[in-house]
TrEMBL record, chain A:
Protein name, UniProt field: DNA-binding protein
Domain ChsH2 rubredoxin-like zinc ribbon: start-end pairs: 19-54
Pfam families: OB_ChsH2_C, zf-ChsH2
Record organism: Rhodopseudomonas palustris (strain DX-1)
Transmembrane segments: none
Sequence ranges assigned to domain ChsH2 C-terminal OB-fold in this UniProt record: 59-121
SUPFAM superfamilies: Nucleic acid-binding proteins
Length: 137, 379
Protein backbone atom coordinates (compact mmCIF):
# COMPACT_ATOMS: atom_id res chain seq x y z
CA UNK A 1 0.00 0.00 0.00
CA UNK A 2 1.28 3.46 -0.87
CA UNK A 3 2.30 5.77 1.95
CA UNK A 4 -0.20 8.58 2.60
CA UNK A 5 0.97 11.70 0.77
CA UNK A 6 2.60 14.61 2.52
CA UNK A 7 0.33 17.69 2.64
CA UNK A 8 1.19 20.01 -0.22
CA UNK A 9 0.05 23.47 -1.10
CA UNK A 10 -2.41 24.07 -3.90
CA UNK A 11 -1.26 27.32 -5.49
CA UNK A 12 -3.69 30.18 -6.12
CA UNK A 13 -3.28 33.18 -8.47
CA UNK A 14 -2.29 35.41 -5.56
CA UNK A 15 0.45 33.07 -4.32
CA UNK A 16 1.97 31.92 -7.64
CA UNK A 17 4.93 34.32 -7.39
CA UNK A 18 5.89 32.95 -3.98
CA UNK A 19 6.02 29.33 -5.09
CA UNK A 20 7.74 30.23 -8.37
CA UNK A 21 10.35 32.07 -6.31
CA UNK A 22 10.93 29.08 -4.05
CA UNK A 23 11.66 26.90 -7.09
CA UNK A 24 14.25 29.48 -8.16
CA UNK A 25 15.84 29.60 -4.72
CA UNK A 26 14.29 32.92 -3.67
CA UNK A 27 12.18 33.68 -0.62
CA UNK A 28 9.74 36.29 -1.91
CA UNK A 29 7.84 38.73 0.25
CA UNK A 30 5.70 41.72 -0.65
CA UNK A 31 6.02 45.36 0.33
CA UNK A 32 3.50 48.16 0.11
CA UNK A 33 4.55 50.94 -2.27
CA UNK A 34 2.51 53.45 -0.24
CA UNK A 35 3.35 52.70 3.40
CA UNK A 36 6.43 50.43 2.98
CA UNK A 37 4.90 47.67 5.13
CA UNK A 38 6.48 44.28 4.36
CA UNK A 39 4.04 41.40 4.73
CA UNK A 40 3.31 37.67 4.40
CA UNK A 41 1.41 35.55 3.38
CA UNK A 42 0.97 36.84 -0.19
CA UNK A 43 -1.99 38.95 -1.30
CA UNK A 44 -2.23 41.68 -3.94
CA UNK A 45 -2.89 44.54 -1.50
CA UNK A 46 -1.40 45.85 1.71
CA UNK A 47 -3.10 44.42 4.83
CA UNK A 48 -1.96 47.47 6.79
CA UNK A 49 -3.20 50.38 4.64
CA UNK A 50 -5.31 48.71 1.94
CA UNK A 51 -3.29 50.00 -1.02
CA UNK A 52 -3.26 47.80 -4.12
CA UNK A 53 0.12 49.25 -5.13
CA UNK A 54 2.47 46.56 -3.84
CA UNK A 55 5.72 44.99 -5.04
CA UNK A 56 7.26 41.55 -4.74
CA UNK A 57 10.84 41.51 -3.47
CA UNK A 58 13.49 38.94 -2.60
CA UNK A 59 13.88 38.63 1.16
CA UNK A 60 17.32 38.37 2.73
CA UNK A 61 16.50 34.90 4.03
CA UNK A 62 17.77 35.85 7.48
CA UNK A 63 15.61 35.30 10.50
CA UNK A 64 15.44 34.21 14.12
CA UNK A 65 13.59 31.44 15.93
CA UNK A 66 10.44 33.00 17.42
CA UNK A 67 8.84 29.87 18.90
CA UNK A 68 8.22 26.17 18.19
CA UNK A 69 6.93 22.82 19.30
CA UNK A 70 8.67 19.48 18.85
CA UNK A 71 5.97 17.14 17.68
CA UNK A 72 6.03 13.56 18.92
CA UNK A 73 2.75 12.34 17.44
CA UNK A 74 2.92 10.29 14.22
CA UNK A 75 -0.02 12.03 12.57
CA UNK A 76 1.44 14.05 9.68
CA UNK A 77 2.18 12.02 6.56
CA UNK A 78 5.72 12.38 5.27
CA UNK A 79 7.24 13.41 8.61
CA UNK A 80 9.28 11.40 11.07
CA UNK A 81 8.80 12.44 14.68
CA UNK A 82 10.18 14.07 16.66
CA UNK A 83 10.30 17.14 14.45
CA UNK A 84 10.03 20.84 15.17
CA UNK A 85 7.20 22.98 13.85
CA UNK A 86 8.58 26.47 14.21
CA UNK A 87 7.70 30.08 13.57
CA UNK A 88 10.55 32.15 12.15
CA UNK A 89 10.74 35.91 12.48
CA UNK A 90 12.20 37.31 9.29
CA UNK A 91 14.64 40.20 9.28
CA UNK A 92 12.09 42.17 7.23
CA UNK A 93 9.42 41.76 9.94
CA UNK A 94 6.93 39.10 8.84
CA UNK A 95 6.83 35.68 10.50
CA UNK A 96 6.29 32.34 8.81
CA UNK A 97 5.96 28.70 9.72
CA UNK A 98 8.92 26.43 8.97
CA UNK A 99 10.68 23.29 10.05
CA UNK A 100 14.25 23.66 11.27
CA UNK A 101 16.51 21.54 9.07
CA UNK A 102 20.13 20.47 9.62
CA UNK A 103 19.74 20.73 13.40
CA UNK A 104 19.01 18.23 16.19
CA UNK A 105 15.29 18.36 17.00
CA UNK A 106 15.85 18.95 20.70
CA UNK A 107 15.09 21.80 23.12
CA UNK A 108 18.83 22.10 23.76
CA UNK A 109 19.67 22.66 20.08
CA UNK A 110 16.63 24.82 19.35
CA UNK A 111 17.20 28.01 21.30
CA UNK A 112 14.69 30.82 20.98
CA UNK A 113 16.11 33.81 19.10
CA UNK A 114 18.88 31.75 17.49
CA UNK A 115 19.87 33.00 14.03
CA UNK A 116 18.41 31.11 11.10
CA UNK A 117 18.77 31.26 7.33
CA UNK A 118 16.48 30.15 4.56
CA UNK A 119 17.15 26.96 2.63
CA UNK A 120 15.07 25.33 -0.06
CA UNK A 121 13.74 21.81 0.26
CA UNK A 122 12.93 20.30 -3.11
CA UNK A 123 9.98 17.97 -2.58
CA UNK A 124 9.67 17.09 -6.29
CA UNK A 125 9.85 18.83 -9.67
CA UNK A 126 6.65 20.73 -8.96
CA UNK A 127 7.24 21.82 -5.38
CA UNK A 128 10.09 23.43 -3.52
CA UNK A 129 9.43 24.41 0.07
CA UNK A 130 11.17 27.33 1.79
CA UNK A 131 12.68 26.03 5.05
CA UNK A 132 15.08 27.37 7.67
CA UNK A 133 18.28 26.04 9.24
CA UNK A 134 20.76 27.44 11.77
CA UNK A 135 22.69 30.35 10.20
CA UNK A 136 26.22 29.41 9.12
CA UNK A 137 29.20 31.43 10.22
CA UNK B 1 -25.45 46.21 24.78
CA UNK B 2 -27.57 47.17 27.79
CA UNK B 3 -26.96 45.23 31.00
CA UNK B 4 -29.25 42.52 32.31
CA UNK B 5 -31.93 42.85 29.63
CA UNK B 6 -31.66 39.21 28.57
CA UNK B 7 -31.31 36.04 30.64
CA UNK B 8 -30.51 32.35 30.39
CA UNK B 9 -33.68 30.52 31.46
CA UNK B 10 -32.78 27.01 30.35
CA UNK B 11 -29.48 25.17 30.39
CA UNK B 12 -28.54 21.53 30.06
CA UNK B 13 -25.90 19.19 28.79
CA UNK B 14 -26.54 15.91 27.00
CA UNK B 15 -27.97 13.16 29.22
CA UNK B 16 -24.61 11.37 29.02
CA UNK B 17 -21.15 12.88 28.68
CA UNK B 18 -17.92 11.17 27.75
CA UNK B 19 -18.15 8.21 25.41
CA UNK B 20 -21.58 7.95 23.75
CA UNK B 21 -21.32 5.32 21.02
CA UNK B 22 -25.09 4.96 20.63
CA UNK B 23 -25.82 8.48 19.40
CA UNK B 24 -24.91 10.46 16.28
CA UNK B 25 -23.78 14.06 16.46
CA UNK B 26 -27.15 15.52 15.37
CA UNK B 27 -28.96 13.39 17.94
CA UNK B 28 -26.59 14.72 20.61
CA UNK B 29 -27.76 18.21 19.57
CA UNK B 30 -31.36 17.10 19.96
CA UNK B 31 -30.71 15.42 23.31
CA UNK B 32 -29.12 18.59 24.68
CA UNK B 33 -31.83 20.81 23.16
CA UNK B 34 -34.70 18.73 24.55
CA UNK B 35 -33.05 18.69 27.98
CA UNK B 36 -32.64 22.48 27.96
CA UNK B 37 -36.20 23.06 26.72
CA UNK B 38 -37.49 20.81 29.53
CA UNK B 39 -35.26 22.62 32.02
CA UNK B 40 -36.94 25.89 30.97
CA UNK B 41 -40.42 24.35 31.17
CA UNK B 42 -41.03 25.10 27.51
CA UNK B 43 -42.23 23.23 24.45
CA UNK B 44 -40.36 22.95 21.15
CA UNK B 45 -42.97 25.21 19.56
CA UNK B 46 -42.01 28.03 21.96
CA UNK B 47 -38.57 28.37 20.31
CA UNK B 48 -38.42 31.09 17.62
CA UNK B 49 -34.66 31.61 17.39
CA UNK B 50 -31.85 29.12 16.75
CA UNK B 51 -28.07 29.41 16.93
CA UNK B 52 -25.55 26.65 16.40
CA UNK B 53 -22.04 26.02 15.04
CA UNK B 54 -20.52 23.44 12.65
CA UNK B 55 -23.98 22.08 11.94
CA UNK B 56 -26.07 24.71 10.16
CA UNK B 57 -29.14 26.27 11.76
CA UNK B 58 -31.27 24.61 9.06
CA UNK B 59 -29.99 21.16 10.04
CA UNK B 60 -30.94 21.79 13.65
CA UNK B 61 -34.26 23.49 12.83
CA UNK B 62 -35.27 20.64 10.55
CA UNK B 63 -34.18 17.87 12.90
CA UNK B 64 -35.97 19.42 15.88
CA UNK B 65 -39.01 20.60 13.91
CA UNK B 66 -38.64 24.31 14.69
CA UNK B 67 -39.65 27.27 12.47
CA UNK B 68 -37.37 30.11 13.54
CA UNK B 69 -37.73 33.83 12.80
CA UNK B 70 -34.05 34.40 13.67
CA UNK B 71 -30.98 32.23 13.12
CA UNK B 72 -27.25 32.54 13.76
CA UNK B 73 -24.77 30.10 12.25
CA UNK B 74 -21.63 31.81 13.53
CA UNK B 75 -19.02 29.06 13.52
CA UNK B 76 -15.65 30.32 14.72
CA UNK B 77 -14.59 27.29 16.71
CA UNK B 78 -15.08 26.44 20.36
CA UNK B 79 -16.17 29.91 21.48
CA UNK B 80 -18.96 30.11 18.87
CA UNK B 81 -21.49 29.67 21.67
CA UNK B 82 -20.23 32.74 23.53
CA UNK B 83 -20.77 34.69 20.31
CA UNK B 84 -24.22 33.13 19.97
CA UNK B 85 -25.15 34.33 23.47
CA UNK B 86 -24.00 37.84 22.55
CA UNK B 87 -25.83 37.85 19.22
CA UNK B 88 -28.98 36.32 20.70
CA UNK B 89 -29.05 38.94 23.45
CA UNK B 90 -28.90 41.67 20.80
CA UNK B 91 -31.57 39.96 18.70
CA UNK B 92 -33.94 39.55 21.66
CA UNK B 93 -33.43 43.17 22.65
CA UNK B 94 -34.10 44.25 19.06
CA UNK B 95 -37.33 42.23 19.00
CA UNK B 96 -36.21 39.84 16.26
CA UNK B 97 -37.22 36.83 18.34
CA UNK B 98 -38.38 36.02 21.87
CA UNK B 99 -36.96 32.64 22.85
CA UNK B 100 -33.61 31.46 21.50
CA UNK B 101 -32.18 27.95 21.57
CA UNK B 102 -28.38 27.64 21.29
CA UNK B 103 -27.10 24.12 20.73
CA UNK B 104 -23.73 22.43 20.58
CA UNK B 105 -22.93 18.77 20.12
CA UNK B 106 -19.95 16.81 18.98
CA UNK B 107 -19.31 13.13 18.56
CA UNK B 108 -15.67 14.00 19.16
CA UNK B 109 -14.63 10.55 20.43
CA UNK B 110 -17.04 8.13 18.74
CA UNK B 111 -17.04 10.12 15.47
CA UNK B 112 -20.60 9.21 14.52
CA UNK B 113 -22.10 11.70 12.07
CA UNK B 114 -19.27 14.12 12.82
CA UNK B 115 -18.78 16.82 10.22
CA UNK B 116 -15.24 17.46 8.95
CA UNK B 117 -13.56 20.62 10.21
CA UNK B 118 -10.50 20.76 7.97
CA UNK B 119 -9.04 23.38 5.67
CA UNK B 120 -8.41 23.16 1.94
CA UNK B 121 -4.98 22.83 0.32
CA UNK B 122 -5.52 26.14 -1.53
CA UNK B 123 -6.37 28.12 1.63
CA UNK B 124 -3.58 30.17 3.20
CA UNK B 125 -3.35 27.62 6.01
CA UNK B 126 -3.19 24.80 3.46
CA UNK B 127 -0.40 26.53 1.57
CA UNK B 128 1.70 28.08 4.33
CA UNK B 129 1.21 25.88 7.43
CA UNK B 130 0.08 22.39 6.40
CA UNK B 131 3.29 21.61 4.44
CA UNK B 132 5.27 21.90 7.71
CA UNK B 133 3.69 18.90 9.40
CA UNK B 134 0.78 20.29 11.39
CA UNK B 135 -2.08 17.83 11.91
CA UNK B 136 -4.45 19.36 14.43
CA UNK B 137 -4.62 21.36 17.63
CA UNK B 138 -1.86 19.59 19.62
CA UNK B 139 0.64 20.45 16.87
CA UNK B 140 -0.44 24.09 16.57
CA UNK B 141 -2.01 25.46 19.74
CA UNK B 142 1.14 25.09 21.91
CA UNK B 143 3.41 26.84 19.36
CA UNK B 144 3.28 30.20 21.22
CA UNK B 145 4.09 28.64 24.62
CA UNK B 146 7.91 28.75 24.60
CA UNK B 147 7.89 32.42 23.55
CA UNK B 148 5.32 33.31 26.22
CA UNK B 149 7.42 31.47 28.83
CA UNK B 150 10.63 33.25 27.82
CA UNK B 151 9.04 36.71 27.68
CA UNK B 152 7.44 36.45 31.11
CA UNK B 153 9.71 34.04 32.96
CA UNK B 154 7.02 31.34 33.26
CA UNK B 155 8.23 27.84 34.23
CA UNK B 156 7.22 24.37 33.01
CA UNK B 157 6.15 23.55 36.58
CA UNK B 158 3.83 26.57 36.72
CA UNK B 159 2.06 25.59 33.50
CA UNK B 160 1.81 22.00 34.73
CA UNK B 161 0.07 23.29 37.87
CA UNK B 162 -2.89 24.37 35.72
CA UNK B 163 -3.73 20.72 35.09
CA UNK B 164 -3.24 19.86 38.78
CA UNK B 165 -5.60 22.59 40.02
CA UNK B 166 -8.27 21.65 37.53
CA UNK B 167 -8.09 17.99 38.47
CA UNK B 168 -8.92 19.05 42.03
CA UNK B 169 -12.07 20.75 40.76
CA UNK B 170 -12.93 17.76 38.57
CA UNK B 171 -12.78 15.48 41.60
CA UNK B 172 -15.82 17.36 42.94
CA UNK B 173 -17.81 16.89 39.73
CA UNK B 174 -19.48 13.47 39.33
CA UNK B 175 -19.77 14.00 35.55
CA UNK B 176 -16.09 14.82 35.04
CA UNK B 177 -14.15 12.33 32.90
CA UNK B 178 -10.90 12.43 34.92
CA UNK B 179 -11.15 12.64 38.72
CA UNK B 180 -8.03 10.98 40.13
CA UNK B 181 -5.63 13.45 41.78
CA UNK B 182 -2.43 14.30 39.90
CA UNK B 183 0.77 16.12 40.82
CA UNK B 184 3.04 18.48 38.90
CA UNK B 185 5.48 15.57 38.59
CA UNK B 186 2.75 13.38 37.07
CA UNK B 187 2.07 16.09 34.48
CA UNK B 188 5.74 16.56 33.63
CA UNK B 189 6.27 12.78 33.37
CA UNK B 190 3.24 12.10 31.19
CA UNK B 191 3.74 11.15 27.55
CA UNK B 192 5.25 13.85 25.34
CA UNK B 193 2.79 15.12 22.73
CA UNK B 194 4.38 18.28 21.32
CA UNK B 195 7.19 19.73 23.42
CA UNK B 196 6.75 21.61 25.70
CA UNK B 197 3.35 19.97 26.17
CA UNK B 198 2.67 16.51 27.48
CA UNK B 199 -0.52 14.47 27.57
CA UNK B 200 -1.89 15.93 30.82
CA UNK B 201 -1.53 19.47 29.42
CA UNK B 202 -3.79 18.65 26.46
CA UNK B 203 -7.58 18.49 26.52
CA UNK B 204 -9.64 15.32 26.62
CA UNK B 205 -11.41 13.96 23.55
CA UNK B 206 -15.03 13.10 24.35
CA UNK B 207 -18.62 13.01 23.08
CA UNK B 208 -21.33 15.31 24.33
CA UNK B 209 -23.34 18.45 23.88
CA UNK B 210 -25.12 21.28 25.61
CA UNK B 211 -27.87 23.79 24.99
CA UNK B 212 -29.06 27.10 26.37
CA UNK B 213 -32.42 28.89 26.25
CA UNK B 214 -32.44 32.69 26.34
CA UNK B 215 -35.25 35.20 26.64
CA UNK B 216 -35.84 38.78 27.75
CA UNK B 217 -35.28 39.59 31.41
CA UNK B 218 -38.88 40.72 31.91
CA UNK B 219 -40.11 37.25 30.88
CA UNK B 220 -37.31 35.44 32.69
CA UNK B 221 -38.82 35.59 36.17
CA UNK B 222 -41.74 33.39 35.05
CA UNK B 223 -39.47 30.40 34.37
CA UNK B 224 -38.82 27.50 36.78
CA UNK B 225 -35.19 28.35 37.57
CA UNK B 226 -33.48 31.44 38.87
CA UNK B 227 -32.66 33.61 35.81
CA UNK B 228 -29.01 34.12 34.94
CA UNK B 229 -28.63 37.57 33.43
CA UNK B 230 -26.24 38.60 30.68
CA UNK B 231 -24.30 41.46 32.22
CA UNK B 232 -21.62 42.03 29.58
CA UNK B 233 -20.36 40.53 26.34
CA UNK B 234 -17.43 40.76 23.95
CA UNK B 235 -16.13 39.07 20.82
CA UNK B 236 -13.36 39.26 18.24
CA UNK B 237 -11.34 37.24 15.75
CA UNK B 238 -7.69 37.41 14.74
CA UNK B 239 -6.32 34.82 12.27
CA UNK B 240 -6.90 31.14 11.45
CA UNK B 241 -3.10 30.75 11.22
CA UNK B 242 -1.32 30.48 14.56
CA UNK B 243 1.92 31.48 12.81
CA UNK B 244 0.40 34.82 11.84
CA UNK B 245 -0.70 36.01 15.29
CA UNK B 246 0.48 39.56 15.98
CA UNK B 247 2.46 38.27 18.96
CA UNK B 248 2.85 35.11 21.04
CA UNK B 249 2.97 37.20 24.22
CA UNK B 250 -0.82 37.62 24.23
CA UNK B 251 -3.91 36.97 22.13
CA UNK B 252 -5.30 39.94 20.24
CA UNK B 253 -8.76 38.32 20.07
CA UNK B 254 -8.70 37.80 23.89
CA UNK B 255 -7.59 41.40 24.42
CA UNK B 256 -10.57 42.71 22.46
CA UNK B 257 -13.30 40.32 23.63
CA UNK B 258 -12.45 40.29 27.35
CA UNK B 259 -12.09 44.01 28.06
CA UNK B 260 -15.16 44.77 25.88
CA UNK B 261 -17.22 42.50 28.11
CA UNK B 262 -15.84 44.09 31.29
CA UNK B 263 -16.64 47.59 30.00
CA UNK B 264 -20.15 46.54 28.97
CA UNK B 265 -20.73 44.95 32.37
CA UNK B 266 -19.35 47.98 34.20
CA UNK B 267 -17.46 45.77 36.65
CA UNK B 268 -13.86 45.55 37.76
CA UNK B 269 -11.79 42.42 38.28
CA UNK B 270 -12.29 42.39 42.03
CA UNK B 271 -16.04 41.96 41.42
CA UNK B 272 -15.50 38.58 39.76
CA UNK B 273 -16.53 35.66 41.99
CA UNK B 274 -16.12 32.87 39.45
CA UNK B 275 -14.10 32.52 36.28
CA UNK B 276 -14.07 30.14 33.35
CA UNK B 277 -11.19 30.36 30.85
CA UNK B 278 -11.52 27.83 28.02
CA UNK B 279 -8.59 25.45 28.53
CA UNK B 280 -8.08 23.38 25.42
CA UNK B 281 -4.43 23.36 26.51
CA UNK B 282 -2.77 24.29 29.79
CA UNK B 283 -1.39 27.67 28.69
CA UNK B 284 -4.78 29.22 27.95
CA UNK B 285 -5.62 30.20 31.53
CA UNK B 286 -2.31 32.10 31.70
CA UNK B 287 -3.06 33.99 28.51
CA UNK B 288 -6.62 34.60 29.74
CA UNK B 289 -5.61 35.95 33.15
CA UNK B 290 -3.21 38.36 31.46
CA UNK B 291 -5.29 39.35 28.43
CA UNK B 292 -8.44 39.91 30.47
CA UNK B 293 -6.47 42.18 32.78
CA UNK B 294 -6.62 40.17 36.00
CA UNK B 295 -2.87 40.57 36.56
CA UNK B 296 0.41 41.20 34.73
CA UNK B 297 1.40 38.25 32.53
CA UNK B 298 4.54 37.70 34.62
CA UNK B 299 2.37 36.82 37.63
CA UNK B 300 -0.04 34.41 35.94
CA UNK B 301 2.04 31.25 36.32
CA UNK B 302 2.89 31.88 39.96
CA UNK B 303 -0.73 32.84 40.71
CA UNK B 304 -1.96 29.43 39.58
CA UNK B 305 1.00 27.47 41.00
CA UNK B 306 0.41 29.13 44.38
CA UNK B 307 -3.10 27.66 44.47
CA UNK B 308 -5.17 30.80 43.99
CA UNK B 309 -7.44 29.14 41.41
CA UNK B 310 -7.87 25.81 43.26
CA UNK B 311 -10.84 24.90 45.44
CA UNK B 312 -10.66 27.34 48.34
CA UNK B 313 -8.50 29.79 46.38
CA UNK B 314 -9.38 33.44 45.96
CA UNK B 315 -10.24 33.19 42.25
CA UNK B 316 -12.08 29.90 41.52
CA UNK B 317 -11.19 29.01 37.92
CA UNK B 318 -12.60 26.27 35.69
CA UNK B 319 -14.64 24.77 38.49
CA UNK B 320 -16.02 21.88 36.43
CA UNK B 321 -12.45 20.62 35.83
CA UNK B 322 -12.20 22.29 32.42
CA UNK B 323 -11.35 20.86 29.04
CA UNK B 324 -8.37 19.17 30.68
CA UNK B 325 -10.41 17.07 33.13
CA UNK B 326 -14.20 17.60 32.76
CA UNK B 327 -14.83 16.97 29.07
CA UNK B 328 -13.81 18.33 25.67
CA UNK B 329 -15.79 17.24 22.65
CA UNK B 330 -13.88 19.58 20.33
CA UNK B 331 -15.74 22.85 20.87
CA UNK B 332 -15.69 23.21 24.64
CA UNK B 333 -17.19 26.71 24.97
CA UNK B 334 -20.69 25.39 25.61
CA UNK B 335 -19.52 23.44 28.68
CA UNK B 336 -17.81 26.52 30.11
CA UNK B 337 -21.10 28.42 29.68
CA UNK B 338 -23.03 25.56 31.33
CA UNK B 339 -20.74 25.70 34.37
CA UNK B 340 -21.11 29.48 34.65
CA UNK B 341 -24.90 29.09 34.55
CA UNK B 342 -24.78 26.34 37.22
CA UNK B 343 -22.62 28.56 39.43
CA UNK B 344 -25.01 31.50 39.00
CA UNK B 345 -28.00 29.28 39.78
CA UNK B 346 -26.18 28.01 42.86
CA UNK B 347 -26.41 24.36 41.83
CA UNK B 348 -22.87 23.51 40.69
CA UNK B 349 -21.35 20.34 42.18
CA UNK B 350 -18.36 22.45 43.27
CA UNK B 351 -20.42 25.51 44.11
CA UNK B 352 -18.62 28.77 44.87
CA UNK B 353 -20.63 29.97 47.86
CA UNK B 354 -22.36 33.27 47.33
CA UNK B 355 -21.04 33.80 43.81
CA UNK B 356 -22.84 36.68 42.10
CA UNK B 357 -20.72 37.39 39.02
CA UNK B 358 -19.22 34.81 36.67
CA UNK B 359 -16.90 35.59 33.76
CA UNK B 360 -16.88 32.99 30.97
CA UNK B 361 -14.12 33.40 28.41
CA UNK B 362 -13.77 31.29 25.28
CA UNK B 363 -11.32 30.67 22.47
CA UNK B 364 -11.96 29.46 18.94
CA UNK B 365 -9.38 27.75 16.77
CA UNK B 366 -5.77 28.37 17.85
CA UNK B 367 -6.34 31.86 19.30
CA UNK B 368 -8.28 32.53 16.06
CA UNK B 369 -11.43 33.80 17.77
CA UNK B 370 -12.68 34.76 21.19
CA UNK B 371 -15.91 35.43 23.03
CA UNK B 372 -16.50 36.57 26.60
CA UNK B 373 -19.79 36.51 28.50
CA UNK B 374 -20.24 37.97 31.98
CA UNK B 375 -23.20 36.61 33.91
CA UNK B 376 -24.88 37.69 37.10
CA UNK B 377 -27.72 36.31 39.22
CA UNK B 378 -28.67 39.74 40.57
CA UNK B 379 -30.58 42.31 38.60
Amino acid sequence: MAEPARARPKITPETQHYWDGAKQGELRLQRCDSCAHAYFPPRPFCPKCGSREVSVFKASGNGTLYSYVINHRPLAAGFTEPYAIAVVELEEGPRMMSNILECPQTPEALELDMKLEVTFQKIDDNLTLPQFRPAKG
Amino acid sequence: MRRNQVAIVGAAETTKLGVIPDMSQIQLHADAALNAIADAGLKLSDIDGIATAVETPQQIAHYLGITPTWVDGTSVGGCSFMLHVRHAAAAIEAGLCKTVLITHAESGKSMIGKLPRSFQADSLQGQFEAPYGIYGPPSQFPIPVLRFMKTYGITHEQIASVAVAQREWAAKNPRAMMKDPITVEDVLNSRMIAYPFRLLQCCLVTDGGGALIMTSADRAKDFPHKPVYVLGTGESVETPMVSQMETFNSSRAFKVAGPTAFREAGISHKDVDHLMIYDAFAHLPLFGLGDLGFMPYEETGKFIADGNTRPGGKLPLNTNGGGLSYMHSGMYGMYALQESVRQMRGIAPAQVEGAKISVCHGVGGMFAASGTIIFTNEK
